[in-house]
Amino acid sequence: MAVRTVTIDPVTRIEGHQKIEALVEDGVVREAKSSGMLFRGFEIILRGRDPRDAQRITQRVCGVCPASHAVASALNLDSAFGIADKVPDNGRIIRNLILGSNYLQSHILHFYHLAALDYVDVTAMADYEGEDPEMRSVREFLARGALGPFLPRYEGDYRFDKATNRKLVRDYLTALEMRRLAHEMVAMFGGRMPHNATIVPGGVTEHPTVDKMAGFLWRLNRIRDFIEAVYIPDVLVLAKVYPDYFEIGAGPGNFLSYGVFDLDGRNPDYTKRDRFYAQGALEGMRTLKDLDVAQITESVRHSWFEGKGPLHPSQGLTEPAPGKEGGYSWIKSPRYGGKVYEVGPLARVLVSYVAGREPVRRLLDDTLKELGVGLEKMNSALGRHIARALDAKLVADAMAEWVLQLEPGELVCAPYELPQRAEGMGITEAPRGALGHWIQIEDGKIAHYQLVVPTTWNASPKDDREQPGPMEQALIGTRVRDLENPYELGRIVRSFDPCLACSVHVIDVRGW
Question: Is the Cβ–Cβ distance between 470 and 508 less than 8 Å?
Fold first, then answer.
């Protein structure tokens, strides 16, 4: 009986610092550990500050998805300030447009510049004879042996023919341009990217104009064309050439969505607010229950933090305990109703599918029909890539309608008074999944702030019940063909699009 521990440290082509350990017995993963290897401390940094600093500071958690933290924090402060139902429509829509633009660049980034390189053999460019100057430059890099970021890599299992590999390299380069356009769209209404300056409590500070709306829509339509004609077809080609990845990487089978993109801001209860994507907890791919945020807890049993018992984020603590016995990660272990739930584009799409959201149902049904697979196959490494591509199309198409709903000259922000004492909660969805911010205000200052972010859910360690996190469960049972090149494990991990910068929320001289 051959037993060996396979360690990937660091996991590359993700945001942040992650370590994966897999105990492989006779070629099959029997146990897995996901470790966040960097302590930060934004929740500590926020203590004692003006609450209105929160939507500025929390964006610095991550440069890939800062808009989602801006929105979550602003919703949090809207709630605490008693104005959750008073944000003007212009403010609501512009928040959606900023967040949606960030979604598009993040999804395109993930597939082409992070995950697709697990499947695309860039060495197919070595004998390229065409006239495309950018493609020729890739060939020249190959000839010089200077292939970063394409190399080094795990070797093996590259199945695309030479023509498809070359097309995907070309699409990699085009995707860089699409991401630039998405960044410009954020900056048009957010002032800058990353870390927009216009999302504030009560709405936004940026006023819409016809010129900005037209410039935004022009860029958006170019990205929509790319998603329709390039991104989704490329993902479908991947699914057809690597159909066995429908059979690996299954998570817990429970999916959680907070809902995202407010369609009407008049309900102060975010769990029941009308949103483009539905809220809910989906058990076993079929049973959808109403979202109940009281069911959310975080365990630190196997995390390098002090604390006892699972706590709701409103009571959660951030007290570092490096080297704690039994700990193996700077990530906490969020759970819903004591159970393990996956979050992300797959969760968003499945929750809305079961909730009967027609655009989601139609698009997913058509995709599954083309691939000849059932809904249950979506709980897989490939399913996550498919859901992310469909998510990009759904959001982009909706944004084309939202931008035309803006009314130049109308209000963009609601007035408010800073409370001396209050509590708040803001829940939304980052590109990678369910994102929540919680705040307590005392004497007009932040007394307590907690973030529970998507990769905290997905890359979490075991909890107090010894239940592995979603990513750990997705790795268990995987057959590894070559222990020196465990590409299967990297592909599964990257299918979650992990963002460790978010999940561990400033290294100090002691090495924490």
Answer: no
- pTM equals 0.95
Helices 133-144 and 162-190 cross at an angle (nearest 10°) of 110
Instruction: For residue 116, give both structure tokens.
Output: 């697709």
Q: For strands 199-200 and 203-204, give the pairing.
A: antiparallel
Distance between CA atoms of residues 197 and 66, nearest Å: 11
User: What does the pLDDT average to over 497-509?
Assistant: 64
Q: Where are the beta strands (DSSP E) in 346-487?
A: 421-430, 433-442, 445-452
Residues in the chain: 512
Question: Distance between CA 253 and CA 303 in Å, rounded?
Answer: 24
Q: How far apart are CA 291 and CA 277, in angstroms?
A: 13
Q: Express each pLDDT in 403-455 by its tens digit.
A: 999 999 999 999 999 999 999 999 999 999 999 999 999 999 999 999 999 99
Q: What is the mean pLDDT of residues 371-399?
A: 98
Query: For the chain, what is the mean pLDDT?
Result: 94
Write out 411-439 in H/E/C secondary structure: CCECCCCCCCEEEEEEEEEECCEEEEEEE
What confidence tier does 13 reach under pLDDT thresholds 50, 70, 90?
Answer: confident
- Indicate if the pLDDT at residue 511 is higher than 50: no
Q: What is the pLDDT of residue 379?
A: 98
Give the other-Cβ count within 10 Å of 77's Cβ.
26
Alpha-carbon distance 42 to 46, whole Å? 6
Return d(Cα 236, Cα 78) in angstroms, integer.
41
Kindly state the DSSP code that residue 326 receives in the 8-state scheme: T
Is residue 274 classed as helix, strand or coil in its secondary structure? Answer: coil
How many Cβ atoms are within 10 Å of 161's Cβ, its own excluded? 11
Question: All domains of the chain, ordered by start, with CATH?
Answer: 3-121+158-503 (1.10.645.10)
Residue 481 CB coordination number (10 Å): 11
Tokens representing 159 are: 């199945």
CA–CA separation, 296 vs 452, rounded Å? 10
Torsion of CA 122, 125, 127, 131, to 10 degrees: 180
Distance of CA 173 to the CA centre of its chain: 22
Q: Is the pLDDT of residue 33 over 80?
A: yes
Q: Are 185 and 97 in contact (CB under 8 A)?
A: yes
Match 């699972």 to its residue by tokens.
Answer: 310
Q: Is the pLDDT of residue 304 over 70?
A: yes
